[in-house]
Specification:
302 residues; TIM Barrel; 2 domains; two-stranded antiparallel ribbon; 10 strands; 11 helices
């Protein structure tokens, strides 16, 4: 009996010593989620079920064409049923040309032409976010002028302030997707808008594809404003073709230093999402799962 009591005592001590370790491990689990971009159209339940089966815990959705209450109810139900966080709604209204020649005159609100029509879509997107309980609208707002003294820059700030104020009144944040401007210009823009609800969706590859910055250095500069991140890889524009963007690559085959970036984000206290974006034609479920596991290992490591 004495031996048995001794063994039981030792077991209880071991359990007591082990409990804080398990509690500590749980406490130290990273809040960073990993997701991908999905459509808000079609069979929403099946889409979210597929996300869960692939191990994703968040997503960004494209602004649905059908923005009825029925669509909102389906999104809310799927989100709750499968435990998938919707971090942003994406919309890029109007004609967009993804190059250096026509991009500055077509994309987002930076071009003066077409602003009124695009603002209508952006307001509808904000309204959709509010009704669906989605925290942010995210978009490419255009090639922001580097020179803050130009009329184009000044009018861009005015129209962005109008949109950001509209969103703030409805409890919605605005995320600028990176790439078409330098980090300094983006920081200046957000400061000049000044509404307090403008943040950054950092697309790691876009900073390279547009030749604007090394993404690791960019995060050192504006990491405190990053609320979501597109995990995408790529290269700088070719020296032989300065008219078109660089080339996207599968993660981690491009020039993005994901270990350094995730380490930096975690050091800065990042608690947002990492959203895999892969726009090449050979995208498969296997690639998405493999990439999720790769990113999760980096999150766990740092």
């Amino acid at each position: 009996m004495k031996t048995l009591r001794t063994l039981v005592s030792l077991l209880l001590i071991a359990l007591a010593l082990g409990m804080p370790q398990r509690s500590e491990a749980k406490k130290n689990a990273s809040p960073i989620t990993i997701g991908c971009i999905v459509s808000g159209e079609g069979d929403v339940d099946a889409t979210f079920k597929n996300l869960q089966e692939m191990g994703f815990t968040s997503c960004q959705i494209g602004l649905p064409g059908n923005r009825s209450q029925e669509t909102i109810d389906k999104l809310k139900a799927a989100r709750q049923k499968y435990g998938i966080k919707i971090t942003t709604v994406i919309t890029i209204p109007g004609r967009c040309v993804w190059d250096f020649m026509e991009g500055p005159s077509t994309i987002g609100l930076a071009p003066v032409e077409g602003r009124e029509e695009k603002m209508k879509v952006y307001r509808e997107c904000v309204d959709f976010c509010q009704k669906a309980g989605i925290p942010a609208l995210h978009s490419h707002f255009g090639f922001i002028p580097e020179d803050p003294s130009t009329e184009q820059y000044k009018s861009f700030i005015v129209v962005m302030k109008e949109l950001a104020t509209y969103a703030k009144e409805r409890g919605v944040d605005i995320y600028f997707e990176t790439g078409q401007e330098t980090p300094t210009t983006l920081l200046r823009t957000i400061k000049d808008i000044g509404t307090g609800n403008c943040f950054i969706n950092c697309d790691t590859a876009n900073l390279l594809l547009y030749g604007k910055a090394n993404p690791t250095d960019a995060i050192r500069q504006f990491g405190h404003l990053v609320r979501d991140m597109h995990a995408k890889d790529g290269t700088y524009p070719s020296a032989d073709d300065p008219y078109h963007l660089g080339h996207e690559k599968p993660i981690p085959e491009g020039d993005v230093d994901f270990p350094a970036i995730i380490k930096l984000l975690k050091q800065q206290g990042y608690t947002g999402a990492i959203t895999i974006e892969y726009e090449m034609s050979d995208r498969t479920a296997d690639y998405m799962v493999k990439t999720r596991k790769y990113l999760q290992k980096l999150i766990d490591k740092y």
